[in-house]
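ZP: hey, is the adenosine-5'-diphosphate complex queued? I don't see it on the tracker
AM: it wasn't, my bad. submitting now with these inputs:
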Amino acid sequence: MPAPEPAQRPKTKDTAVAIDIRKLSLTYQTADAPVIALSDIDLKIRTGEFVSFIGPSGCGKTTLMRVIANLVDPTDGIITVNGMSPEQARLQRAYGYVFQAPALYPWRTVRRNLTLPLEIMGMSRSEQAARVEKYLALVGLKGFEGKFPWQLSGGMQQRVSIARALGFEPALLLMDEPFGALDEITRDHLNEHLLRLWERTQVTVIFVTHSIPEAVFLSNRIVVMSPRPGRIVEVIDSDLPPDRTLDVRETPAFLEIAHRVRVALRAGHSYDD
Ligand code: ADP
Ligand code: MG
């Protein structure tokens, strides 16, 4: 008789590996001393997972994202992205990348910011229009197609960036401190938005943050990193209910996971400086 499916984590039932990192290291050569940005990283991320990376500035979070996105090559080790090399994955547009600052073109309307990557892909105009409508609705910005970025708040601009990254329907979303510059109320709101969006789209999300509550609220797993050299201290599972709202942050289960993250950060001497 076949073994019953584990029921507790429906999002990760599909065990296909989205990212496979083995013994990965990266040293930047600089004018004075070499900088070891990543040292001996081993990690598998399954398709459909939401994984957060947390750690102090300089522990290599952005570098790791850049390796996944094929913007920089590792010095050592192996990485595959959806079973391909990072270069193949980039050429196949396997991922969307959301940066800390929205990075929208000020002279283009919201609609035309969203269609830019779709135009480059050679998508038909009708399909472009359908995607714009679908993904603006998904981030709660239906009706804002004709606005320019400077007519929107910071939080709305960031949602446009997310819609743009989702618009070409990547299997993987890389988000590097996307809400870091926002006020707490806006951040809370976008956290809930992002969670609902992830539940609906089943996209694999790799999310960098400085915020313990944000990491715990959003993730299936939290990867705690420490600096000099950048390495993984601990990987912490989170099994909060999938339909959670921000209220979950008051629960003992949430506080317990947040505590474990804090202890791991401390163990990595992340608070030294
Ligand atoms: P994080 O995103 O966690 O703050 P980064 O990945 O940006 O960390 O940086 C990790 C380390 O690598 C830091 O010490 C940083 O100064 C260094 N670093 C990052 N990018 C470069 C680069 N292009 N050249 C040299 N050193 C770099
Ligand atoms: Mg960074």
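AM: back. The chain has a mean pLDDT of 90.
ZP: great, adding it to the tracker
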